[in-house]
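Our preliminary data section would be incomplete without showing what the modeling component actually yields. Below, a chain of 329 amino acids is followed by its predicted structure, encoded as tokens that our downstream tools consume directly.
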Amino acid sequence: SIFLYVEWRFMKQTNTRAMVETGFVSTIVAMLTIIGAVMPFSAFLATMVAPAGISIIGIRWGSRYSCTSSIVAFMLVALFLGPLIAMSTVLVYSLPSIFLGEAFRANWSFRKLILVPAAVLLSMGLLQLVFANSFASVDFITLGQNVNNELKDAMIESIRQQSIPQEQIDTMIQQLNYSFAQAERMMLSLWFCACSVITYIMAKLVSYIGRRTNTVHRELPPMDTWRMPIWGAGVLAIGIIIIYGLSYIGYDNSLLKDIGMNIAFAGSFICLINGITCLMAVMKTYGVNGFFQFLILFFLYTMSPYGLVFYGIFDMFLDMRARFQKRSL
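Predicted structure:
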């Protein structure tokens, strides 16, 4: 009945088949969201699988039907779990899903397909924080800080229980505190990078479901073919100049330093992705198995993430893929 009312209220001319599919998918989206919200270990159902259904509706029938599906799913979740849960799940992920469906439908470039929904997802997350703090009296910032402190205390306690010299323990704890302090200052760029990763996973899921339902015939490019733009290294350089240039000239401004750190992290993330994809392309050229590729990349990232960043920069300027490809022939 909710779906029929929304259709009657907002659509003058409707397609009967589109209405039926939208209602069916809206019910599935609501069910998956409720399951993901009630069972924490299945939260991915509410944050990734359910939004993919909204995108599929947008690809098949257009944005107005995906908007209708989002409204109906929001009403159903709010009816069973309350508006706060509906706002933190359906409301946050519905708009990025609508943009993702439109990206597939309009055949956007891969870069635009990922970055635009990621920016929308970040904006919706910030809007949720403002709305919850202003109207619902829920302080997510303080809650996040408490979780952060609990995680840091647990890690410090695990370090102290190790049978190593006290000087080494003190050094590790100091490094841990420094890392957490840096992460808090770079939270905006960290959040955007996380939104980009979530959007990519959602896009892969939409592409898979779309091919299975004969809706989407577009496959996302494999990671070993990705090439990050060369201006990513320039973004990293600008961030480093802002951070250390202010100290060099004796101008201490915490806000500008935070901006520089966020810019530098965004640039380093771009270079890191380029380094990882470049190594994947090189290992694929030499016939390395996918499982061993994962092990090698995991080991390199764990031991020296900065090495992958520098390798990504080298590839941007020197085209390391072409050089190794010539040697393998």
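Residues 56 and 268 are 33 Å apart (CA to CA). The chain has a mean pLDDT of 81. Preliminary results of this kind motivate Aim 1 of the renewal.
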